[in-house]
Each structure stands twice: as structure tokens, then as C-alpha cells.
Amino acid sequence: MCKVSWCTNESLKYKNGSSKAYCKVHMQYKQYAINAPVRPWLMYKVEKVVEDNLKCEHCGFEPYVTYPNENKKRLISLMDVDHIDPQIKHTPEGEQPSNYQLLCKHCHILKSHEEGDFKAKKYR
Partners of 19 in the beta sheet? Predict the structure, then answer.
């Protein structure tokens, strides 16, 4: 099975028959989100990119539409994955697609300020 906790797809196989860590969809993290294995929320972003569904879930900004001639990798960097409920971040239930949303940089910054994420935890 794929190493991504919410994925039920079978992982790819090496030529010798042994299993790789990720399925066909999530193996693309190497192309779109290099450090995704240690940051599970980035696999959500990889899924959105593979589905060609790179759209801010708050304001509706679509980088592919706004910048049709721009390189895909550069457009991906305009988007962030946000934890909807930051209180359960880094817990098994907090690292599920139901707690993720894809936001443009502007919406993510505004939400983070609203939640006080820019402040050290001891000052919140």
C-alpha cells in the first residue's frame, strides 16, 4: 500500500518485484514537492497538481488561468496547503485531507494572521 496515510492505492513495484513506498499518484512528489515525505500535507498539494485542480479554496484564484504561459512548477509555488484546524496539526487526524485546504499565498497569509500563527506559541 501507498505510504500516504489516507491513500488506499497499491504502491509501485521495483523491477525486482519489491514494493516502492508510494503509488503512481504520490510518486510524483519528486517532481512537484521534493520534501513531501516529511511533510504529509504536501501530498495533498501533489494530488491537486496531478488532478490539474490548482485553485485557491478560499478566493478561487487559479494560477493556470491567470498565467497560462507560465511554467507549471513556478505556478505551484504560488499555492500553500493550510491546516483548517491548526490545533490538531501534527496529529493523525490533523494530517488528513479533511483538515487541509489549498490556498493562494495571499489567503494563507491573511488566515495565518487571523489565527495568530505569526506569533510564538507562548504569546498567543
Answer: 13
